[in-house]
Amino acid sequence: MNSKDLEYIFSTVKFQSKTEYPRTINIGTRGIQLKYLRNSQFNYEARVDENNKKFIDILRKDKSKILTISQNVYPTNSKSGIRLGMDKVKTEQHLENRGIRTPFSKTYHQTEIDKAYKETFELVRDNVVVKPSNASLGKGVVVDVSKEEFYNAWSYASQAKGKGREILVQEYIPGFEARATVIQGRLHSIVLRIPPYIVGDGRSTLSQLIDLKNKERKKHSHLSKAPIEKSERIKSYLRSNKLDLDDIPEYGEYVLLVSVSNFSLGGELMDITDLVSEKIKETILKALAAMPGLYTAGLDIMMKSFEDEEPVVLEINSYPAINLATYPTYGKLENPFKTYIESVVAMDQFINPPKDPYDIKNNEEYIRDMLKFMKLRNEIDYQRKDI
Length: 387
Description:
Number of strands: 14
GO molecular function, one term: ribosomal S6-glutamic acid ligase activity
Largest sheet: 5 strands, antiparallel
CATH class of the domain at 104-172: Alpha Beta
Low-confidence stretches: none
Protein name: Glutamate--cysteine ligase/cyanophycin synthetase
CATH architecture of the domain at 104-172: 2-Layer Sandwich
Helix content: 25-40%
Strand content: 15-25%
Order of helices and strands: HHEEEHHEHEEHEEEEHHEEHEEHHH
Shape: globular
Strand order of the largest sheet: 12-9-8-13-14
Domain ATP-grasp: 92-345
Structural class: alpha+beta
Organism: Salinicoccus halodurans
Mean pLDDT: 92
Keywords: ATP-binding, Ligase, Nucleotide-binding
């Protein structure tokens, strides 16, 4: 994302104010899950085993078990699909073979920096993304990396790689990133991930504008937990754009402070589900349907506009961070875990009709969407290019 993307987004989307949440909200996945279940009609049992692993059993009215949700796994997803999604390069190849656009990527051992440099700019030629192969929450990710910046970006990614030893080099795709959450074959939401930014007032320096924005963020419960830090990362990004913290932006000028879309760095989340084209929504569902045995996932996608005819799928996560969709900074609040439980129970009651069923408001819609998704998967398998 760049500053022009920001201007496009905020000139197109007319949210009047940030969405307010209670200061006591729990933004952890398990907390969101249990809060919903406690206030729902569904029987369940939350338990912890002797190894401190946490589970949630979803039960029928007669207390028989439908399924068990464990940490980091939705049981309706297959093991083969989960394993494939964990390998970013294989996922990209798999999707490309099924007609879905992805960026070119390759992984290297952290010691193979010279080889990576040579191969990357022979194949890609343009700027790239450098990140740990196991990157999460934007840690160690450097985007729009030029030849001149490659070695520094590699060093930064290597320092943040955690337990892994591999670095992923990926084709840089211009535009802005969103997280699409698909629940049991049903598109639940598309949330735009906006990096930290400020808007100039014609008087204040960038440093002062960051202070003012952090003061405003303190008024909002979950935003207050992620202030914008005047870090070396932000200073470095500003320098790369010939800016520094003492510069005074013009009135109404959008200035991006870092290019990585990360809420924890002081970013924001915007629900754009009702704003994007049907083409983008179709691409999202087609991409997940192409993954064997995956029904619930988070898909990271890049688009140049809300009407983009060729959105690019960056990554597929089989255990999506549901807080992104549950608590957007701008837009509607809608719990994806509610959709997951209702869909699972609706399908269970469709396959195994009980004497005393749960009354689910959108029961027929859940069943219809799942059957449509399964049909789409069969069509993709039939048409795939690697037969």
